[in-house]
Specification:
Blueprint: E1 3-4, E2 11-16, E3 21-25, E4 30-36, E5 38-43, E6 49-53, E7 57-59, E8 65-70, E9 74-80, H1 84-106, H2 109-117
Parallel strand pairs: 1-3
Antiparallel strand pairs: 2-9, 3-8, 4-7, 4-9, 5-6, 5-8
Length: 125
């Protein structure tokens, strides 16, 4: 069954036993980093065979299916670049947290008391 890279976090660690395979669909822009072992990477509609050993990296430069096969017990990392949408979402999250912090600081007990003192009583008829 193919492993959907789009559903993972930005960094994902995997262990592949000898002769184990990992199938990635639509993983263009994802980097395969080998920490230990040897991997054989095959890309759909590509004549190259990429062999990676410990300490090497390869960025998948084509869309389609990518098959990663372990020639020895291997530890690898899948690193996906942040998209513009992801960077914007992170910025928005930081900005909203900063705004909430400012609003909480302005609504302290002293600030609220100052607001209440400024009110004038209104007669009730």
């Amino acid at each position: 069954m193919p492993y959907g890279i789009a559903t993972t976090s930005l960094r994902h660690r995997r262990f592949l036993p000898k002769r184990g395979t990992l199938v990635l669909d639509g993983a263009r822009g994802t980097t395969i980093a080998v920490d230990q072992g040897t991997l054989w990477v095959t890309l759909e509609r590509d004549l190259r065979d990429i062999i990676l050993t410990g300490g090497m990296r390869f960025e998948i430069d084509r869309s389609g299916r990518t098959v990663v096969a372990a020639e020895a017990d291997s530890r690898l990392r899948l690193i996906r670049r942040k998209t513009l949408r992801g960077r914007f979402h992170a910025w928005l999250k930081r900005a909203s947290a900063a705004l909430a912090k400012i609003l909480v600081a302005s609504a302290t007990a002293e600030g609220c008391a100052g607001l209440l003192r400024q009110r004038k009583p209104v007669p009730y008829y």
